[in-house]
Amino acid sequence: MKVLIVDDEKLARDRLREMVGEIGEHTVVGEAMNGSEAIAQTERLNPDVLLMDIRMPGMDGLEAAMHLMGLDTPPGVIFTTAYDQHALDAFEVNAVDYLLKPIRKDRLAKALSKAGKLTLQQLQDLNQAQESPVVRTHLSVHLRGNIRLVPVQDVLYFLADNKYVTVRTATEEHLIEDSLVNLEREFGESFLRIHRNALVATPHISGIEKDTSGTWHVTLKGLDKRLAVSRRHAAAVRRWARR
Question: What are phi and psi of 184, to 5 degrees?
Fold first, then answer.
């Protein structure tokens, strides 16, 4: 199998590379230092399995695994971690196995063997087994088979339309297949429901105003567009504005 090693510590990456070489049968095709690099390297190198740390600066391993689930041919993920309490979370995001540091060569060999026996269908079944409790820092946008990562902090609003949701930043619009209910559940502390089809990022709200017909609108920083507030949500939006 082709193996991608993901860890922010060089000594850990070197040790894993050495052990994979000693085990034989598999080839280390690349390395990455965090979750974002892991996604980019996965798209470039198409590894069969990732040996990925959980705790890393920037995007951690759990979130990276969530984004990788969306690929047509997702790799297997073997988490490497010094934190045993993360084991349950690991298995909820397509983990073939998890290895507790310091990693033993025989245990690594067993995990790689297990990954090699999984078919694509079994990996996809693992992906769909259950929702992950991880709160994402980025959203996955799929463009021509590739993953584009959009930082959640850059999102101005989510706007639902049938089965798709528009993700709007200051400069771009993207479509994702998700529901506002799920997005509100995950990011509700930073977003305000203003309409049954709209969530607005509170850090980007510049104010609220009423037009001549009595309809309230939300105005956004750096965007020449107003979003209508439904009657049902007007009171909650005004309460938020008075805080």
Answer: -65, -40
133 prior amide bond cis, ω within 30: no
**The pLDDT of residue 129:** 47
Domain ranges of the chain: 2-127, 154-242
Record the tokens describing residue 87, joined without a space: 């084991």
Domain 2-127 fold is Rossmann fold (3.40.50)
CA–CA distance, 237 with 219 (Å, rounded to integer):
12
pLDDT reported for residue 86: 58
Q: Report the alpha-carbon distance of residue 236 to residue 166 in Å, rounded.
A: 23
Homologous superfamily (CATH) of 154-242 is: LytTr DNA-binding domain (2.40.50.1020)
- The model's pLDDT over 60-93, given as tens digits with 9 standing for 90+, comes to 998 999 888 888 888 999 999 887 665 555 556 6
Asked if residues 68 and 75 have their Cβ atoms less than 8 Å apart, the reply is yes
Taking only the tens place, the pLDDT of each residue in 129-168 is 444 456 788 998 877 767 888 999 999 999 998 889 999 9
Q: Tell me which residue has tokens 């510590």.
A: 9
- Provide the CA 117 distance to its chain's centre, in angstroms: 26
The tokens describing 33, both together, are 């230092």
Burial of 3 (0-12, 13-18, 19+ CB in 10 A): buried
Q: Is the dihedral of CA 206, 211, 217, 220 positive or negative?
A: negative
DSSP class of residue 202?
G
Classify each residue of 67-88 as buried b or exposed e, where b means 16 or more C-beta atoms within 10 Å of its C-beta: bbbebeebbbbbbbbeeeebee
Distance CA 130, CA 67 (A): 14
